[in-house]
Every structure is written in C-alpha cells, then in structure tokens.
Amino acid sequence: MGNRGEMKWSDNLRKWDRFKVYRYVILLGLSLSGDGWSYEASVIASIIQMPSWIKHLGYDAVIPDSKNQWIGPVYSLGQLVGGLIAAFFLDNLGRKPTMVLGAILMEISTALLVWSPSFAVVIAARVIEGVSIGFLLLGYQIYAVEIAAKEDRGFVSSFTLMTGNFFGLLAAGLVYGVSYSASNAGWRAALGVTFIPATLLLLVLPWVPESPRYLYEKGKDEQCRRVLGKLHGCVQDEGQLILSDAAETEYEAMRAAISWDQAHGQDKWSALWNSKAARYRSFVAISSQSIWSWNGGSVITYYYTLVFSQAGITDSHLQFGIAAIQNATWCVGGIVGGYLLDIWGRRTNYLIGVGQAAVMLIIQGGLAVGIFDKGIVNQAAGAGFVTVYLIQWFLWVTFFSPVVNMLPAEIYSAGLRARGYAISNVFSMGVGFATQYSALPMYRHMHGWVWIFFAGCMLFAFAMIYFTYPETKGMTLEEVEIVFGTGAGQRVKAALGRSSPQDPTTP
Fold first, then answer.
1. Where in the sequence is the domain holding 161, given as residue range(s)?
2. Which residues form the Major facilitator superfamily (MFS) profile domain (predicted)?
3. Is the pLDDT confidence value at 99 over 60?
4. HEC string of 287-323?
C-alpha cells in the first residue's frame, strides 16, 4: 500500500479471514435489494413492446405516444418521493427496517403489474416500484459503505449492481422466450419472477446486524462495538470484547466525527449547504447523480424497437435477442467495474465512462444522420450502429454505474448520509424523469441528431468531473471528511494521531 491507499490488482483477493467472509456474505445476501428492480426494469422495457401486452391493455397495435411516454419515466417520480421518505426511515428506524419496507413495496408493485387490468394500474405499479427503489437503493448503498473496509468499499458497494445484472440477463432470456408467445401467460410469468429476489431479501434481513454508525448515532455504544468486532475483528478476553487494531481505529475515528457533528449541529438539514465544505460535497453528490440522464439511454431503454427498426433491424425476436446479449455483457462489466473502483479509483472510472459514451454517441449520430434519417436501409450500417451501442453500454456499466450509486453514500458524514443521498436522488430522478419523458418527442423531431446532443452532454460532464471531483479510494469514511475540509475531518485527524495520510485537497 502506498501513502494514498494504492492497491495492486490482486490485493483484494488475499487476506481472507472470517471477518471479511462475514462482511461479504452479508452484503451478497443484501444485494438482492437491487435484483428486483433491475430485473423488472429489464422486463418492462421489453414487455411494453409486446403485442399481447398491448392488446391486453385494450389497444390495437401500439399504445399512443401520449401514454407510452409515461410508462418508462414515471417510476422516476416514485423514486424521487421514495428517496425522500426513505431518508426519514433510515435516520429514525435504521438501515434494516428501511430495506424491509422497500422489499414489501416491490412485491406490491409486482403484483399490480402481473395483474395489469388497465393502463392506470400499470402507472400506479410503476410509481410504487419507484418508491421501493428509493428505499432499497439508499438502504443498501448506505449500509454497504458503512460496514465495508476501506480497501474494498467500492467493490462490495457494487454487489447489488452485479447481482442485478445477472437477474437482468435472466429477464432478457425469459423475454426472448415469451416473445414467441401470443398469450398473456408469458409476460405475466416474466414479471412474476420479480417476487423471488424481494422475498429472498425479506428472509435474509433478520440475520443482518444494524449499521455500527447508525448504532453509535443513537447512543448504542456497546452494540456498535460488538458489530464492529464482528465485521472487522475482535477477541474475547475473560468475557471482555477487545477490538482488533483496525476495528478500534475505525471506532475512534467514527466517534470523533459523529460526536463533533452532533455537537456542532452538522447532522441537520442545513449542514448540506451552510459551509464551503458542505456546498462542495453537495455539488459533487448532486451533479454526479444527474449525469446518467444525459447518456442517450432515455431513448434506447424504452424505445429501442423504434431505434433498431430505423437501423434496418425489424425482426422483434432479433431485437429481444440483442437485448439478451447486452445483459450478458453487463454481468461481466459489473464485476470488473466494481473491482476497478478500488484499483483505479472513483474519478478515473467516472472519466472513462462518460468519455467513451461521448465518442460512441458521436459515431451513432453520424450513422443515423448520414444513413438512417435519409430512409436508407443499410444492413452493414445497422450492424455497426448496434455494435457501437453494445460497446458503449458495456463500458458504461463497467466504469460509470458502479460509481454513481455509491458516491453520495461515501462522501457524506454519518448524520447526513441518508438526507444527502435523498437530496441527490431528488435531482437524479427529477432530471431522469424530464429526459425520459421527453425522449420520445425528442427522437421523433431530432432523429439522428439526438445522439449528437447527448454526446455534447457527456463532453460537458467529462470536463466537470476532471476539474472538480476529488478522489476518495482507499480512505475510511472519516478520512473522506478530511478531503472535503469539514470540521469533523479535522477532529478525525486528531483522533488518529495524524496517522491518516490524507490532507484536505481538491484535484
């Protein structure tokens, strides 16, 4: 390890003790929190294209654009509300109960979608699903960063993305199969699989300990120390719990940071903006959560059959098959990208993710404007368009997705973590709704130029990240406080006896 917490490629594959195994088992179990909505998002994007589902809702061949453009983005409004409500539960009930509520809401939304008696019920189900995502996403990410070791926090925070991608692959395979069925049983069965991860999560949660930082915040000092011992090392000596050096150091830093924040009112809503450090931290969190909306996915995700048709790929089974191939590559990308977070760092992965997206979108725009928009059917160009699209999204899931879900949880202090993430989520889902709702009319009016527009957005994001974002890999959560120059960070320095190599810095 260097003085900046540098890791070699194989470091995280070594030093397996029972405490590390325990942490990984817990987080792999809880990663089911992301599987339900990852799976459902993959399924619904395909099912809304199916003639049997469209007919079941009472339409002839297609759902009118005025209604169709609501199905995809409306869950963003639910997630916006869910994230805000989740902040209250995370702060007052704990991380575990919040995930329980999220899993229950996911089961309710799934039941409504399987039923799908009308368009209104579908919209209601998507809103409820969005609320559940707010609970599950915030719950898992906050819990994961709070129990992880500093050297593998990026990797374990990505577990929910990795397992979600595997369920997404399952979804693509099932959808490809039911695309040959004209009955309602096929799409109902595909949607019904969403019950499985939500139910398994409810069975796992009773065996999971509460977050040690939440316990300390609530004055449960002894419980906090016991959980830290289980997670990061301890021994029993004549009935007394003795923490390992690593666990004791983390406890002292945690105590210093949380106590300072509580004594100085830095665990209140106003602490999100009432100082230069607070505004800098909130800027990074909010801006990072808004980038994903401008990557062109708002067009592809819900209208990919339209896009592929313009590229000369009109067979619906082939379109669903391409989606299955894409999900297979995402499974690999999620694992590689999560691991690289602790090797290359958050900032580097962000830059690669948005940089490659800009390049790929320019290529897609060139093909669309030069060929497809002119009504020319060119199979070679169509194959090139789809290939570039698959590469873009593989690299996006590899380098961008693992960072975006984790960063707000990592950069906020314990007392602000839930509320800071909630506010970031409001901006994320608000912008997401706007771009997804406008995606269909944008595509109808701009055609190929829509890809050039999104490429420009990615170039702007690249410059913003390069010039303003700090690096936080290899640091404890309390050392991250030092990077942003907070008062708690200075108290942490003193508590660690200057053992921390980190100093307040910006790139």
1. 16-213+269-474
2. 26-473
3. yes
4. HHHHHHHHCCHHHHHHHHHHHHHHCCCCCHHHHHHHH
